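Figure 3 (text version): structure tokens given as input.
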């Protein structure tokens, strides 16, 4: 059995009931085979892969909180500090009922390679809780965030571990958590990113993941001789990533005709009306049925279906494993040219392979959605300097980072004789820096 297969098997045996973590490790390790085989003896002696697939540490804790009726609830919180070889742990917090240790580990593992790809000094971590923010009052959200941070504050700090948002965690939640950290620890420091602008947040962080996705998509298309202007896009999700992906795609001259939430999806033949979508999702925190009611050109459908629409570009921006083999077949049959992942691991392994076999340009999430964490790292830099940059400065740096990532994954794929295989290219480019840093730092 090869070294990669041995490690993969041990991950499955030692981490039972964590299918998403197995999937993420399998995708990365299998595509790293050419690099591992070229250095097998050395890596094996150093147990490099075993160290990479085992988080440096993980915390699991109780979160008691009181609802508006005086009822006490208990949720479970997590923070996984996966790999700190190239910088302080960095990665978001997810509040969603589906959260468990395996989900946080898959996200933390992906984050290690993503953060490396940004070229900035950030290690990989992730956290969250099985708390459902839907339908909660502002006071309940505050109570939960304060209780969560009361425990989390023991393990994080501006130079050790810097969380941010993810699904269910936006500016409101980051604000409540920052306030509680400051109150308990007594320090005003850049311990979280995605902060409000009045207390150390960075301009363009809100837009960064969606904008970054489009900067990378445009560059990937350009490398392959294709223009983004005039193309039609299907977008899934209607949260932070989806909204700003639609905004930037529209600005680039493409037309986004779909979006979705956890209960249904919209097809809008005239292109998504962004002002209306922001009003429904960012201000009212309402369902997409509200969008359809206010927009005559839009159709609302229950369930899933955005991938059945004929488009040139697919941008999955909701959650993991939301694009399956049947969806990939439908997209290919409809002539899709490119798929770029705004969400983390939205495409199943089988669907990814189908796209690659059918010559669809496929940009994996760890490259395509790295703009969010990259801009978080820029927020950390501004906090260290105690200065704030303009929107234009941050956005220009974000564009530069996404263009560099596109070329790094393209170049690594070519170097290993797999031109156009951006999954392999992104994994190898992300791995090389972390592996080198780990080797230099001895057995830790
Ligand atoms: N916010 C950020 O900066 C970054 C987010 N991501 C990833 O992007 C994806 C979306 O995150 P955000 O937009 O920040 O979250 P969000 O909470 O703002 O929005 C999430 C969206 O996905 C939908 N969704 C969530 N769970 C779902 C489910 N089980 N089935 C169907 N739809 C579901 C929600 O309805 C919502 O439209 C996630 O995979 C996240 O990990 C990746 C990089 C950075
Ligand atoms: O901005 C950050 O630190 C985290 C972003 C994130 O959670 C992600 O890249 O998946």
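Below: residues designed for each position.
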């Amino acid at each position: 059995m090869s070294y990669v297969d041995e490690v993969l098997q041990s991950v499955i045996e030692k981490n039972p009931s964590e299918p998403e973590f197995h999937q993420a490790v399998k995708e990365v390790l299998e595509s790293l085979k050419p690099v591992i085989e070229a250095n097998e003896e050395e890596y094996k002696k150093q147990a490099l892969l075993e160290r990479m697939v085992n988080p440096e540490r993980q915390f699991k804790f109780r979160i008691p909180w009181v609802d508006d009726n005086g009822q006490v609830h208990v949720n479970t919180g997590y923070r996984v500090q996966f790999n700190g070889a190239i910088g302080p742990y960095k990665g978001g917090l997810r509040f969603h009922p589906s959260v468990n240790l395996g989900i946080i580990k898959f996200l933390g593992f992906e984050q290690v390679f993503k953060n490396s790809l940004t070229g900035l000094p950030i290690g990989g971590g992730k956290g969250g809780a099985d708390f459902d923010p839907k339908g909660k009052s502002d006071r309940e959200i505050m109570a939960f965030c304060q209780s969560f941070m009361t425990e989390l504050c023991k393990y994080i700090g501006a130079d050790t571990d810097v969380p941010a948002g993810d699904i269910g965690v936006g500016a409101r939640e980051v604000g409540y958590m920052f306030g509680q950290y400051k109150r308990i620890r007594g320090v005003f420091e850049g311990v979280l990113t995605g902060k409000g602008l009045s207390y150390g947040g960075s301009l363009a962080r809100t837009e960064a993941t969606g904008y970054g996705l489009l900067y990378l998509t445009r560059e990937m298309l350009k490398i392959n001789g294709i223009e983004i202007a005039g193309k039609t896009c299907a977008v899934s999700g209607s949260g932070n990533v989806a909204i700003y992906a639609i905004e930037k795609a529209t600005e680039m001259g493409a037309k986004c005709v779909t979006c979705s939430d956890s209960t249904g999806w919209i097809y809008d033949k005239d292109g998504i009306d962004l002002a209306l979508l922001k009003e429904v999702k960012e201000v009212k925190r309402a369902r997409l049925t509200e969008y359809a009611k206010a927009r005559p050109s839009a159709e609302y459908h229950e369930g899933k279906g955005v991938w059945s629409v004929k488009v040139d570009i697919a941008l999955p921006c909701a959650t993991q494993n939301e694009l399956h083999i049947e969806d990939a077949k439908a997209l290919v049959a409809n002539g899709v040219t490119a798929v770029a992942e705004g969400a983390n691991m939205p495409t199943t392994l089988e669907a990814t392979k189908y796209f690659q076999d059918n010559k669809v340009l496929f940009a994996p999430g760890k490259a395509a959605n790295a703009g969010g964490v990259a801009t978080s790292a820029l927020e950390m830099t501004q906090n260290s300097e105690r200065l704030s940059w303009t929107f234009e400065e941050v956005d220009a740096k974000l564009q530069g980072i996404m263009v560099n990532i596109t070329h790094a994954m393209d170049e690594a794929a070519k170097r290993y004789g797999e031109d156009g295989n951006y999954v392999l290219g992104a994994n190898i480019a992300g791995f090389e820096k972390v592996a080198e840093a780990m080797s230099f730092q001895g057995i830790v």
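The longest strand covers residues 72-83.
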